[in-house]
Design brief:
alpha+beta, seven-stranded mixed beta sheet, about 45% helix, three-stranded antiparallel beta sheet
């Protein structure tokens, strides 16, 4: 299928999204027949050099087109007689207690037929970051809601094939980290790349003409210019506009046993961990588990789902914000690279005990809030271990001093007896 450029960012599908698709028999199809596996990040440095870090063997995230996923889900749904699709219906009002929904048909000019009123048994609102269902929930008491627009925006560009082939190695998530801004590239099935530029809105606004655009790219993304093409770059940049990025948190997700919001309607997040779609699809698995736990009692299940899913969704919203800093800035810092190598070594040595943050989020279904608490524990453990190593080093120095200068008043045995208590103290702390 031909790639259709648009306003949405490519999907990077990982374990959580694939698991949900597998529930309707589509996971293996997307993984084996359609998705392009990306086995590592490839970092494009300012000087044109590249370096990459491969994830664990047999681990990959899959670049998939948003349109294609929508279409195969619609095709799968159309096979069920009890599923009916109604397009061109805009929700204008809802009573979530009854429930009752009032739609306006956007494809109907006859005023007598424009309004459609339905009274379903259950409303599940999966209507995106600017959800009309959530808007109705916000009118209710004790509904908590917050949104945050980050000062950065995004713009989608396109990198065409060269000679009918990919212009860059296809099995990588390509990243151009540049501190306050960055660019990422994901491969498409037509052998092009979707290249998404993220940077502060003010930076977008300061690029006003062809010369300022080319000057900016020459300074920051020089290696991408011949791959995108000067004319295509200029045309794409000035024919599109920078679009905002919003993060949404709210709670609860349900109104009794009558209404529920899921996906971006409940927890829109910035795209920097590649988990927005994965998290939304995993919502379906979490809801299914809640229904099973509550013997299909809808009221109990929706309450259970809301209480269970909210701390995980909010943790993922926070992680997505953090990962933007990592991707645009930290990936080139020595301290970050050392920590990454240490995490990978400890995971190889103790795979069930030490699971790095990115691995737990992307390649497992560990609950998101546990991924965060696990990382906090790891940070604390490494801090205490490094302190203990420092203390041991100091003790060795004292020991050597005491033997090199026998007249010293330091009693090495007394000092060592204190030092021997340190491992047990550290163990209790860990």
């Amino acid at each position: 299928m031909e790639h259709v450029a648009g306003r949405s960012i490519n999907l990077a599908m990982s374990v959580r999204g694939l698991g949900a698709l597998e529930g309707v028999g589509l996971g293996e199809h997307v993984k084996q027949e359609y998705g392009i596996p990306m086995h590592a990040r490839m970092i494009h440095n300012r000087d044109g050099s590249t370096n990459h870090s491969i994830w664990k063997e047999n681990q990959a995230i899959y670049s998939v087109g948003r349109r294609y996923v929508n279409e195969i889900l619609l095709d799968a749904g159309s096979k069920y007689e009890n599923i009916t699709f109604h397009f061109h219906h805009k929700l204008v009002k809802a009573n979530l207690d009854k429930p009752e929904l009032i739609f306006e048909r956007t494809d109907e000019e006859d005023e007598s037929k424009k309004t459609v009123v339905i009274t379903p048994d259950l409303v599940i609102g999966c209507d995106g970051a600017f959800s009309a269902v959530r808007k109705e929930m916000m009118k209710r008491p004790r509904f908590n809601y917050s949104q945050e627009y980050i000062p950065h925006a995004y713009m989608e560009l396109s990198m065409p094939p060269i000679g009918g082939e990919f212009s860059m190695p296809p099995n990588y998530l390509h990243i151009w980290p540049r501190g306050q801004f960055m660019m990422i590239g994901l491969p498409n099935q037509d052998k092009s790349f979707t290249v998404t530029l993220f940077m502060p809105t003010i930076t977008f606004e300061n690029i006003k003409d062809r010369d300022s655009l080319l000057h900016f790219f020459n300074d920051n993304f020089r290696d991408s210019i011949p791959l995108i093409g000067i004319e295509r770059l200029v045309n794409d940049f000035f024919s599109n506009r920078a679009l905002p990025l919003v993060s949404v948190k709210c709670n609860p997700y349900n109104v009794g046993g009558k209404s529920l919001i899921m996906g971006d309607a409940a927890h829109a997040m910035v795209p920097f961990y590649g988990q927005g779609m994965n998290c939304g699809m995993e919502d379906c698995l979490v809801l299914e588990d809640a229904l099973d736990r509550n013997n299909m009692d809808i009221g109990l299940a929706l309450e259970d789902y809301s209480n269970t899913r909210n701390p995980d969704a909010e943790a993922m919203c926070d992680l997505a914000m953090y990962n933007y800093v990592e991707m645009r800035d930290l990936v080139n810092k020595k301290s970050f690279l050392v920590r990454k190598k240490l995490d990978n070594f400890l995971h190889w040595l103790l795979p069930s005990w030490w699971v790095p943050l990115y691995t737990s989020v992307t390649f497992s279904r560990m609950r998101y809030h546990k991924c965060v608490s696990n990382r906090a524990w790891q940070d604390s453990a490494l801090g205490k271990i490094s302190s203990l190593v420092g203390i041991c080093g100091l003790a060795c120095s004292v020991w050597l001093v005491s033997f090199s200068w026998p007249d010293s008043k330091l009693d090495p045995k007394q000092f060592l007896s204190y030092l021997l208590t340190m491992p047990s103290m550290a163990h209790r702390e860990l």
